[in-house]
Amino acid sequence: AQTVTQSQPEMSVQEAETVTLSCTYDTSESDYYLFWYKQPPSRQMILVIRQEAYKQQNATENRFSVNFQKAAKSFSLKISDSQLGDAAMYFCAFLAFGNEKLTFGTGTRLTIIP
Amino acid sequence: EAGVTQSPTHLIKTRGQQATLRCSPISGHTSVYWYQQALGLGLQFLLWYDEGEERNRGNFPPRFSGRQFPNYSSELNVNALELEDSALYLCASSLGLFQETQYFGPGTRLLVL
User: Residue A41: what pLDDT?
Assistant: First the structure.
């Protein structure tokens, strides 16, 4: 079974600054995917970024990037130039290839300070 | 392109009743997933349907069931509702088997009184 741990229940950052959200996971699988989803107060879960475990290069999507450390089983999310619209609950999630079941962490609530 | 849609947005039931939640996937997606987001329990996988078949289910009692229709839309049924079934139920869809990225709908908030 897989586990996903987000050790920061809450984080805050000044608008336009950079913030990093942490995520660690535990698995015996060799082929898997990692995701960051955000859930604003509207409740809709929105995909932020995904990383294939077989890729060494860290994924990047505009202001969002990850630091994927496979040996350490770490998958952190960096948000650059934070904007008010980034305020949300952020969930780290794991999916083993062929399993099709997302395992989520407990989430980090991100507050943006104007 | 329309995203995943769910209905109703809110549902209020009393203990012992049955609830039916509906989900329409993104056009072209054949897999539908159901997750429960309950206070204090986080997001938990419920069910996965692909091409009309139930492919996997999470650690939930049999009173949680569902089906997928030929047009790939899906229904989640919860029988004999209990107070602890109160939660946000999220539906997601993907392109199908081994297509790993799941896209979520806005959810249905179920309140059991």
Answer: 86
Residue B9 has a CB neighbour count (10 Å cut-off) of 10
Average of per-residue pLDDT across B28-33: 94
CB neighbours of B91 closer than 8 A, spacing ≥ 6?
B4, B6, B21, B23, B25, B32, B33, B34, B35, B74, B76, B104, B105, B107
Q: Is the pLDDT of residue B98 over 80?
A: no
Q: To which CATH superfamily is domain A3-113 assigned?
A: Immunoglobulins (2.60.40.10)
Query: What is the β-pairing status of strands A88-96 and B108-112?
Result: unpaired
- Any domain includes B57: yes
Which residue in chain A has the smallest CA separation from B96?
Answer: A100
B105 part of contact set with chain A, CB < 8 Å? yes
